[in-house]
Amino acid sequence: MANAFDTEITETAEALIGPWRRPRQMLQAQTYDAHASIHDDATAQKLGFKGGTIEGPTHFSQFAPLGAKLWGQAWFESGCLSAHYRSVCYEGEEVQAILSKPLPGTSQCQIQMVKRDGTEVLRGTASIGDPHAATALEARLTELKPLANPVILRDVKVAHTGKRQAVRMAFDQNMGDLYPFSLRQKLAVITENSSYYSGADNPWDKPIIPMEMLSVLFQYRSKDDPLPTKGPAVGLFADQEIRLVKGPLFVGEEYEVEREVVALSGSRRTESAWVKTRVFDTAGAIVATMLLNMATLKDSYAPYEEEHRRLYGSAAR
Fold first, then answer.
1. Using CA atoms, how far apart are residues 37 and 46, in angstroms rounded to an integer?
2. What are the pLDDT digits (tens) for 66-117?
3. C-alpha distances in angstroms, 101 versus 7, 71, 106, 127, 215?
4. Angle between helices 211-219 and 60-71 (to 10 degrees)
5. What CATH code would you report for 10-312?
6. What is the DSSP letter of 313?
7. Where along the chain do its domains lie?
8. Is residue 140 packed enough to be buried (19+ CB in 10 Å), middle (13-18) or exposed (0-12)?
9. Residues 81, 263, 255, CA angle at the centre, nearest 5°?
10. What Å distances lie between residue 290 and 87, 137, 257, CA to CA?
11. For residue 44, which phi and psi values (nearest 5 degrees)?
């Protein structure tokens, strides 16, 4: 059986540290609401960013070798990454994944990703199984600033649950307008490749889907049953947790996903819908979950101020 990764990992008494990597941006052609996304240079620059941003879950791949070194096969079967995205990353920038070792007898630890200049890209937790402690985002959900006077999300309600949708990911399947590339194209540029992903040389005797591509799989048909948001507007992933319950998930296999709005929150610049995706195998068992904070930028919705004034009698603060 081959090792999952040949990534060079630095180990200290306190942490496992991955190598510096330059993640690739594959969403330049992404469209939703019939317009380009924040991963398009021109759209991002209009909103005050330097250019198209690297999609958050791309960074999850750099933590996979660290999780595998710490926990072995259990990482692929019940691993969880729970992250708050702190700053954007642009193509060409180098980033490094750091996993702080868990305390003895525990199965959860802190994670962090940083740029060369020390800028923190994300922070959160990694765990396996039931860690008997709140993940980074479970804790964050208890501390949210409630969404007051919503405009973009005014018709979205907590507990809104969408229809179950069938999804699958084959090697050469283009994943649509949201993800205009295939798994094979991703594996050609992924920061940490593995024989586990592209071959059968693993404990399950068939190719498994990388954790960063689980985000793609779970969101694949989300626009077929969208939330009743106002638009067009531009959103970004602000927080994301992917948890394997009965993993791994396999290339070419059929799954079903169901999405539920579990919280609404707001900030000066954004309105956020927190959506919990539950993923089922063909026998109806939950195999994975994802918690995603899709934060919509107020400034990207042209009539925001006008509609806020009409709805609430004052300008937005």
1. 11
2. 999 999 999 999 999 999 999 988 888 999 999 999 999 999 999 999 999 9
3. 18, 11, 10, 11, 25
4. 130
5. 3.10.129.10
6. S
7. 10-312
8. buried
9. 55
10. 21, 11, 10
11. -65, -40
